[in-house]
Design brief:
This protein is an alpha/beta fold. Helices cover 27% and strands 28% of the residues. Strands 1, 2, 3, 4, 5, 16, 17, 18 and 19 form a nine-stranded mixed sheet that branches. It has a six-stranded parallel sheet with strand order 6-7-8-9-10-11. A hairpin with a 5-residue loop joins strand 14 and strand 15.
Length: 394
């Protein structure tokens, strides 16, 4: 396909002014003013008027339960898997799938199959190997083999610590997982990131801190998530980010409710506090925990109720950063575009510049509402509605 988007306010995610953008096939071919594409009628050119619109890279969701999650309230609370429009209708063009508490009925074979299915439908999909459990449940029998030999596997996770649902890994077990993932990533040219689930325990990030202090493993090998789960955890994570680590906020579509029952830190407020404390705008991301189970436990660890994570929270969190905390749009966008692309070594993702993948979103300037989504050069959402493609072609 050949697509020209004209007169949009372009964020690469850095603001680049009003420009045109040319897409050839699945890549961005040019970015500039008054772009022209002439093919003597041999190829049709689709033009999209971006006047009054903001053009951004497609969103990268670095933590989503694409095949659903195991419900901690019994089998009836298992959460449903993601469908294509859960992603595209929320601006997500790249997703990293993971397994959470249930590493038994949700296994790596099923996760990879789901990832390949979403890829065939039009969005770029990667996965982490493993789940909460230690030893890690892999496909090949080895964490390092999974990372090295399975193309879609870019790291391990979500490995659970400081949580009553984790396997309570020892320091030695934890370090071995991280080192194997790191070396496997180095040998395969991948990020080799370990996505760490952080729970409510007062131990917070102790295992991560001890690893970087007592071994040669760097801060950047970890992507701890749910860092805004509570105030104490957020403060520990902020110190980790100041020291050079990267941290991942979990978006929350229902934050007003959760703030009423716990001290969860609102994403936009947490990002503002990080920036004010001197943390680099490159050292944090936002993910959705989409389709994951969001259980509520009492002080005794007894199950009280459950919710479901929603991919829609990514755009909502970007919008709140701008509207509630006056954070520059380009800074908020980094958390769902350029930052996860760099941290996860996703190559041509996360930026709007020639040679990058044609993954992008058009948002209205007024209210930042989703208007158009293009993934791998194909229009997936047009005028706020999903583009339906037939299953069979003649």
């Amino acid at each position: 396909m050949v697509i020209i988007i004209r007169n949009a306010q372009v964020y690469q995610p850095e603001y680049a002014g009003k420009k045109d953008l040319l897409i050839l096939g699945d890549q961005i071919a040019a970015l500039g003013e008054n772009l022209q594409a002439e093919f003597n009628g041999a190829v049709s050119v689709t033009e999209i008027d971006g006047t009054g619109m903001v053009l951004t890279p497609g969103f990268i969701d670095s933590h989503e339960h694409i095949m659903g999650g195991g419900g901690e309230g019994g089998f009836s609370t298992r959460t449903p898997e993601a469908v294509l429009t859960d992603l595209t209708m929320n601006g997500i063009t790249t997703v990293v799938g993971c397994i959470g508490t249930d590493g038994i009925t949700r296994d790596m074979a099923a996760l990879l199959a789901k990832a390949h299915g979403l890829e065939e439908e039009g969005v770029t999909t990667y996965v982490y190997t493993g789940s909460y459990q230690v030893p890690v449940h892999t496909l090949t029998g080895s964490v390092m083999k999974d990372v090295m030999l399975l193309d879609k596997v870019i790291g391990a996770g979500e490995i659970a610590i400081s949580d009553h649902r984790s396997s309570q890994p020892t320091f030695e077990e934890f370090v071995r997982i991280v080192s194997d993932v790191r070396v496997g990533g180095m040998l395969a040219g991948k990020a080799g990131i370990v996505n760490i689930h952080l729970g409510d325990s007062p131990r917070l990030m102790d295992l991560i801190w001890r690893t970087v202090r007592e071994t040669e493993i760097p801060y950047t090998q970890f992507l701890p998530t749910h860092v805004n789960r509570n105030e104490a955890l957020f403060q520990s994570a902020a110190e980790f980010a100041k020291a050079g680590g990267v941290i991942d906020f979990t978006g929350n579509e229902d934050i007003d409710y959760w703030e009423s029952i716990c001290d969860e830190v609102r994403v936009c407020s947490g990002i503002r506090r990080l920036l004010e404390s001197g943390v680099s705008e490159n050292n944090f991301t936002i993910s959705s925990d989409g389709q994951g189970s969001l259980p509520v436990f009492n002080s005794k660890g007894e199950y009280q109720g459950i919710g479901i994570g929603k991919a829609s929270c990514l755009l909502k969190e970007v919008r709140e950063c701008v509207e509630r905390e006056d954070i520059p749009l380009e800074t908020a966008l980094r958390a769902v575009t350029a930052n996860p692309a760099r941290i996860l070594k996703l190559g041509k993702k996360g930026r709007l510049q020639p040679g990058c993948d044609a993954d992008l979103c058009l948002l209205t300037e007024d209210g930042l509402k989703l208007y158009t989504v293009i993934a791998k050069g194909k229009i997936m959402v047009q005028e706020g509605k999903p583009v339906v493609r037939g299953t069979f072609e003649k």
